[in-house]
Design a protein that fits this description.
With 279 residues, this protein is mainly β. 4% of the residues lie in helices and 44% in strands.
């Protein structure tokens, strides 16, 4: 396992960041590294996120000094979505076969989590991970895409037609504070949400993927009256603190996984902004 650590920033500090510094603080570029678990620990609500990419060997989640325990899930919960390939995840000996679009929630106290590929080494799975501190234990839940809670939003005229699939969410399974899902944009749509919003009570991490070759996503960042952008390539994550707007626009359709942690789990608890209010 490899892990980077990012510290929390005051929004006024961000005003002094150039492009390089902004990317160093909020962008996590190396989500998937062959035969490794690649993680980022942000002090914003102490969320851990990243990817597991088992190609030639199984990969085990481990704790350590950074987590204050030898067991990663001693005081944490974990959400997982497979974004490509086929494989299996073992949680304390129980195996779950995974394919693209399948999700898994693993609660506090599970001691042994192992990510594996199936026999086809030409199609290894990539598992995107998000974890938050947890105060109690909830059962492990396998969440195929068909069992996720879909919400279709947007309109073609605003180029933001999309389906939000809620995976780790009260409508699907119990969790302590982690909320996680996947949003798929329809062809011809590019905005993942517009008008954009903030939610002071929760931070969020976005992971962008299925971006067509040569395309990018411009992730919007900062307070509504002091916006910046971070250019995102395929399979990269970005930290959005609670004080930052949450929105992005691509050069074409794409998919993204969102993970939130904080004060509550109410998905619609957000402060929507008029487009004319953004500066």
């Amino acid at each position: 396992m490899k892990m980077e650590i990012r510290y929390a920033e005051h929004p006024k500090d961000m005003l002094n960041y150039d492009t390089k510094t902004l990317r160093e603080h909020f962008l996590f570029e190396n989500v998937f590294i062959k035969d490794e678990i690649s993680l980022c620990y942000t002090h914003s609500d102490r969320v851990v996120f990243g990817g597991a990419f088992p190609c030639t060997k199984p990969l085990r989640m481990e704790g350590g000094k950074d987590f204050g325990s030898d067991v990663f899930l001693d005081r944490r919960e974990l959400g997982i979505i497979c974004i490509t390939g086929e494989g299996k995840i073992s949680a304390d000996g129980t195996e779950y076969k995974m394919k693209k679009g399948d999700g898994l929630y693993i609660g506090k106290g599970v001691k042994d989590v192992i990510f594996s590929s199936l026999d086809d080494k030409n199609n290894p799975p990539k598992y995107y991970l998000a974890s938050a501190p947890a105060h109690t234990s909830y059962p492990v839940v396998f969440i195929p895409k068909e069992k996720a809670n879909p919400r279709k939003l947007g309109e073609a005229a605003a180029v933001n037609v999309r389906t939000i699939y809620q995976y780790v969410h009260p409508a699907v399974c119990q969790s302590c504070q982690l909320v996680m899902g996947m949003t798929i944009l329809e062809e011809g749509s590019v905005w993942n949400t517009m008008p954009c919003h903030t939610h002071e009570r929760r931070m969020e991490v976005y992971f962008y993927f299925d971006i067509k070759k040569g395309g990018v996503v411009f992730h919007m960042h900062g307070k509504p009256d002091e916006t910046r952008h971070i250019v995102m390539n395929n399979e990269q994550s970005v930290i959005s603190p609670s004080w930052s707007i949450h929105s992005g626009v691509g050069t074409g359709a794409y998919t993204f996984i969102w993970a939130m942690a904080g004060e509550n789990q109410t998905f619609d608890d957000m402060d929507t902004l008029l487009t004319t209010e953004i500066k």
